[in-house]
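Narrative summary of target 7.
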Amino acid sequence: MAEVTISGLIEGGKATGGPPFGPALGPLGVPINDIIKEINDKTKAYEGLKIPVKIIVDQSTKKFRVEVGSPPTSALILKELGVQLGAKAKDEVVGNLSIDQVRKIAKAKALALYGNTEADRVKQVLGTCKSMGVKCENEDPRSIIKKINGGEIKF
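Modeled conformation, tokenized:
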């Protein structure tokens, strides 16, 4: 059984028969429209975000399966803030999230983050916030991490 995997990034709910998938799927003789419909059905909740997608095709049976990844943490942060880009300069601040918004992002990314506890995953999201110029509770994300480590913020 020879399987072929095709990977790409698409905007949630907006896959088409064009690149990145159409040209790669065409030579495999699989039902491209069925695959595109499944991708769009599985990604429509992520409208406006780029989502990693894998299509695994069994060349002998022409059967396929679609695996949808999780959007990058940075994309979830930008969506939560309602902005397009993170900070360009080290001292620029592009927005402010509440701790509840950070927890929401950490829950959405739970399977993709390395932390064993909710607090660990929240700290990972806060690290991404720091690198993007995003504050949490109007503070530097590092001070929020210190509060979590010190037990001042509990989960």
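The mean pLDDT is 91.
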